[in-house]
Amino acid sequence: MTTVQIEIGGERFPARFEAEAAPRTVAAIRRILPYEERIIHVRWSGEACWIPLGDLDFGLGYENATSHPAPGQFIIYPGGVSETEILFAYGPVAFASKAGPLAGNHFLTITEGLETLAKLGRETLWTGAKSIRLTAA
After folding, report:
1. Domain map of the chain by residue range?
2. Is residue 50 within 8 Å of 42, Cβ to Cβ?
3. Do 121 and 49 touch, CB atoms closer than 8 A?
4. What is the reported pTM?
5. What are phi and psi of 128, to 5 degrees?
6. CATH architecture of 3-136
C-alpha cells in the first residue's frame, strides 16, 4: 500500500506515502489506518493545520525530518519539546511551537488538489475545525 485517500471537510485528495524516506513513520501511520479526527489551524507555524495528539508515543525518532514542509506535505512531530502532532502545510510553513522551532517527519504527500487544500486551510482558520479521514486507497 503506497497510496492514501485523504478526506478533509468533504473534499478528497489522493496522496502517497514517503515509504523510502520515512519507513518507520509510514509503518506507524499504516497501523492506525483508517484514521479519523478533526483538524484545527496551527498557532505558530504559518499556513498549516494540525492534529494535536498530546503525549501519544508512536515510538519514533527523526527520519526525513523538516521544519519547512511544502504545501500538501504531512509531517508528524514525535514529541519531546512539544506535544506529539500531525501537521500538514497548505502554504508557507516554519514549523514551531511556543518552545521554538521544531522538525517533523515528512511521511505523506498530497498529489492532486493543492488549490482546494489551500482553500480548506483558510476556511479552517476562519471558521474552525474540520473533519479529516485517512484511508488506504
Report:
1. 3-136
2. yes
3. yes
4. 0.95
5. 105, -170
6. Beta Barrel (2.40)
